Automatic annotation (TrEMBL):
It comes from the Bacteria. Belongs to the UPF0145 family. It holds the Pfam family YbjQ_1. InterPro entries: UPF0145_dom_sf, UPF0145_YbjQ-like. The lineage of its organism: Bacteria, Pseudomonadati, Verrucomicrobiota, Opitutia, Opitutales. PANTHER family: UPF0145 PROTEIN SCO3412, UPF0145 PROTEIN YBJQ. This is UPF0145 protein FPL22_10150. It comes from Rariglobus hedericola. HAMAP family: UPF0145.
Amino acid sequence: MNTPIILTNLETVPGRSIIEHYGLVSGSTVRAKHVGRDIAASLKNFVGGELKGYTELLTESRNEAISRMETQAIALGANAVVNIRFSTSSVAQGAAELYAYGTAVRVE
């Protein structure tokens, strides 16, 4: 069974020492909205509340970007990714990239 990789936005893993450094790892995904979510979002503008369609889209995007970053870290031999950050950018009308990046390391 594989040991789960440690993911943290801290610069170190508390209580553990970094013994190897593998450098930058990243994962990204580009997602587009669909008409159904836009219609639901526009209706929510009248009554207020959470835009669940967009919340789900962002959650799926974050999970996919993290998964790709994790895969890259494991391939390098890391057992942790520290200092994880997220970034977003618009790549086309109605489409955005979610980018996750961090530093792959091996901890004791």
